[in-house]
Write a structure and sequence with these properties.
About 55% of the residues are buried. A hairpin with a 2-residue loop joins strand 21 and strand 22. Helix 6 crosses helix 7, helix 10 packs parallel to helix 18 and helix 15 packs across helix 16. The chain is about 30% helix and about 25% strand. The chain folds into 3 domains: about 160 residues, Aldehyde Oxidoreductase, domain 4, CATH 3.30.365; about 180 residues, Alpha-Beta Complex (Aldehyde Oxidoreductase, domain 3), CATH 3.90.1170.50; about 325 residues, Aldehyde oxidase/xanthine dehydrogenase, molybdopterin binding domain (Aldehyde Oxidoreductase, domain 4, 2-Layer Sandwich), CATH 3.30.365. The chain is of the alpha+beta class. The radius of gyration is 27 Å and the shape is globular. Strands 3-5-1-12-9-10-11 form a 7-stranded mixed sheet, with helices on both faces. The protein has a 5-stranded mixed sheet with strand order 7-15-14-13-8. A 4-stranded mixed sheet has the order 16-24-25-26, with helices on both faces.
């Protein structure tokens, strides 16, 4: 279907909440004010590992304005966590496992009083031995953070497809290398927050900036040992997520406990130091990669060993280590593959999902090593990637099936647009081009329930209401479902309102993660809108004396195809449909999950975890100053396969965000910990992120064709682009000055050190 066949799809449209955000009308958690509301604050442990022996809050409670204090002793329920098999958190803990781990919380009439009360709470600790590096934590006799996990290994994932040793024997050339990607913060502009109330019926309501309100409901219900139906979670506007707001934070549990204890609303807003120090961060990871190829660059075998520092709690550890191996098999045809992934507990802040979740670290390693292999063999790095690129119809050795794939076109068009042949390998210019390819899921099936559901209602005046469980965290999913409903019903997006992400009033949805929302919620919206459309078409057919199959919904009217003068206004048709017979509501519902997925076999790991997969190629151009070691990214060209583009403005935003974040990860963003696990740079003064001045010009080349499963042929673009940014930059630096970066972040010191090593080798 051509773009001309659509009225809304394929056209750039601003987000439906853009005006509210731009004018200050959007209400974030910090903006919420309720009568008699108290301010809550969290007390964190000063020790990286310690047992809480006693908490004396008497002095704090004697302070005027303090209304309640809660501790781990007040948590009545069970442990919670993202996965049932890895539930290890309680909210307020009796055993601190990192500096800042929440041991108590206070509610007072204002922030000043609450902060003063924290200083008056006296905690007796039994300080325990601590461990801060995963290799040390795995050793015999190392301090145990959680008794259930031997050697502190919380996630232990292995793949063994084909015969990797046979693949290496068939190879003409083999390389083994080590790479390290650092830990960084999501850098959300809005610190995490929650407002909790408790009413006389025994019901809690939580307003919070979350990516997964239904996850929060389940976890808080477990912590409080009450039915989930006794908790309502309402997603507010979210000032940045990127994975950090997917799971439940101790502030959610603390606010609920304090609200019940005081019978008053309680608001907890984290400080910037808390946001960066006690929420979630990207897991630093060491990746050992061994790859065997033929003389023409064809990959014969690949083996990876990944070691991740998970911090103090499990969070999404098993999914991250699963992804780290799985995504290696998406962009290229690999006949033999072996992977061993370990995430290990340490006495540092918790790691968790972060845009690209587990794919970034091994993609950096593999893409850099492919360039190294190309140089060893005297081959063009782009040609090596083209030689191995996955194709439409491929099924990987692990069972992933690609119903659409335009990776080859993305390589060809990306290199052409970037001037690859003309610009690469220009000795003496200090300029270089680097390439990297990647692929990503359109929503991984990670549990039994993975569907999205949508309700669509047409009101009597022709206005449309969409009720969605999906969480808009700035990526624009509310706008997307409005756009799709508008397309199906032939009305402008401005006629559509969206009610979303409220566990009491909207259908259950897993949340915004794994690049699933467009794919899942988009298809569910089509189904719901078409139910409504069919209902209205039956009435229109009788009024226009035509067949329902011949009717067109467009431009706020319904008309007979080929005879636009035979029409009825959409609003008038809505009234007629409601009035038909004894009167009825115009409501449609749709629920959708891909039917071509197969949950991976527990033993063999074979399975197709996503309905479709996106593909991309990123080419970075850099200039390196040999005197200072400074690197400037001159431009980025992206060949992208996200299927059909539904909204060019949203796609452009995702591209810009991915490149900006990639620049930050490559050069600036690095969480630094002291020897005792204390975070040393928990503010934006010390943790640097790119500004618009650091972001290069970007050129996007969309090469995708409509996917047979995605809504109108669309696939994801939210995460897949980011994972190729860092290796493309690293490869460009090597092309410019011959310095290979194998440990991130890239710094002038590392560049200068590499140049000095070059000069030393040349003299020998």
């Amino acid at each position: 279907m051509s773009s001309e066949a659509f009225s809304q799809i394929g056209r750039g449209q601003p987000q439906i909440d853009g005006l509210a955000k731009a004018t200050g009308g959007a209400k974030f958690v910090a903006d919420l004010e309720l009568p008699r509301m108290l301010i809550g604050k969290l007390l964190g442990s000063p020790h990286p590992h310690a047992r809480v022996l006693n908490v004396d809050a008497s002095k704090a409670l004697a302070l005027k304005g303090v209304k309640a204090v809660v501790t781990g002793e007040d948590v009545p329920g069970k442990k919670y966590g993202v996965f049932v098999s890895r539930m290890d958190e309680t909210g307020l803990t009796k055993k601190a496992r990192y500096i800042g781990d929440t041991v108590a919380a206070v509610a007072a009439v204002d922030e000043e009083t609450a902060l003063a009360a924290l200083d008056l709470i006296e905690v007796d600790y039994e300080v325990l031995p601590a461990v801060f590096e995963p290799e040390e934590a795995m050793k015999e006799g190392a301090p145990q953070l959680h008794d259930e996990y031997v050697h502190n290994v919380v996630a232990d994932t292995h793949y063994d497809f084909g015969n990797v040793e046979e693949g290496f024997r068939q190879s003409d050339h083999i390389r083994e290398d080590r790479f390290y990607m650092q830990s960084n913060s999501h850098g959300c502009m809005e610190p995490r927050g929650v407002v909790a109330t408790y009413d006389v019926s025994g019901k809690f309501t939580l307003w919070t900036s979350t990516q997964s309100p239904f996850q929060q409901r389940r976890d808080v219900a477990r912590a409080l040992n009450i039915p989930a139906s006794k908790i309502r979670v309402i997603k507010t506007y979210v000032g940045g997520g990127f994975g950090s707001r997917m799971d439940t934070h101790p502030s959610h549990v603390a606010a609920a406990l304090l609200a019940r204890k005081t019978a008053r609303p309680v608001k907890i807003i984290l400080s910037r130091e808390e946001e960066m120090g006690i929420t979630r961060r990207r897991a630093p990871m060491t990746v050992y990669v061994k790859t065997g190829v033929k003389k023409d660059g064809a990959i014969m075998a690949q083996q990876l060993r990944a070691m991740a520092d998970g911090g103090a709690y499990a969070c999404t550890s098993i999914l991250m280590m699963y992804n780290a191996g799985l995504t290696c098999m998406i962009p290229y045809r690999i006949p033999h593959f072996k992977y061993d992934g370990y995430q290990v507990y340490t006495n540092k802040a918790v790691t968790g999902p972060f845009r690209g979740h587990g794919a970034n670290q091994p993609r950096y390693a593999v893409e850099c090593q492919l360039d190294m292999i190309a140089e060893d063999l005297g081959l063009d790095p782009a040609a090596v990637r083209l030689r191995n690129a996955s194709q439409t119809g491929d099924t990987t050795i692990s069972g992933l099936h690609f119903v659409s794939c335009e990776l080859s076109r993305s390589i060809e068009e990306g290199t052409r647009q970037a001037g690859w042949t003309e610009k690469r390998g220009q000795k003496g210019t200090n300029r270089g081009l680097g390439i990297a390819c990647g692929g990503f899921v359109c929503g991984a099936r990670i549990a039994g329930h993975s569907a999205s559901a949508i309700f669509v209602q047409v009101n009597e005046d022709g206005g449309v209401t969409v009720i969605s469980g999906a969480s808009d965290i700035g990526q624009g999913c509310d706008s997307l479902v409005a756009q799709i409903a508008a397309e199906e019903l032939g009305v402008p997006t401005s006629d559509v309102s969206v009610i979303a992400a409220d566990t009491e009033t909207t259908p259950i949805d897993n949340g915004s993660f794994s690049s699933r929302v467009t794919f899942y919620a988009g298809n569910a919206t089509i189904l719901a809108a078409r139910q409504v459309k069919q209902m209205m078409a039956e009435i229109a057919a009788s009024l226009l004396e035509a067949s329902a199959e011949d009717l067109v919904f467009r431009d706020r009217k319904v008309f007979v195809q080929g005879s636009p003068d035979r029409s009825i206004p959409f609003g008038q048709l809505a009234k007629a449909t409601e009035a038909f017979g004894h009167g009825r509501l115009i409501i449609g519902q749709g629920q959708w999950a891909p039917t071509n997925t197969q949950f991976p076999d527990k033993t063999t790991k074979w399975g197709n975890i996503s309905g479709s997969y996106s593909f991309s190629t990123q080419i970075a151009e850099v200039e390196v100053d040999r005197e200072t070691g400074e690197v400037k990214v001159l431009g980025v060209t992206i060949g992208d396969d996200c299927g059909r583009v539904l909204n060019p403005l949203s796609v452009a935003g995702q591209v810009q965000g991915s490149v900006a974040m990639g620049v930050g990860h490559a050069f600036m963003e690095h969480l630094v910990f002291a020897d005792n696990g204390q975070l040393l740079n928990p503010t934006f003064l010390d943790f640097k992120m790119p500004t618009t001045l650091d972001c290069p010009p970007m050129k996007l080349v969309e090469v995708g064709r409509p996917d047979p499963i995605g809504p109108y042929g669309a696939k994801e673009i939210g995460e897949g682009l980011l994972i190729t940014a860092v290796p493309a930059i690293c490869n460009a630096i090597y092309d410019a000055v011959g310095v290979r970066i194998t440990e991130l972040p890239i710094t002038p010191e590392k560049i200068l050190r590499g140049l000095e090593e070059q000069r030393r080798r040349e003299k020998q």
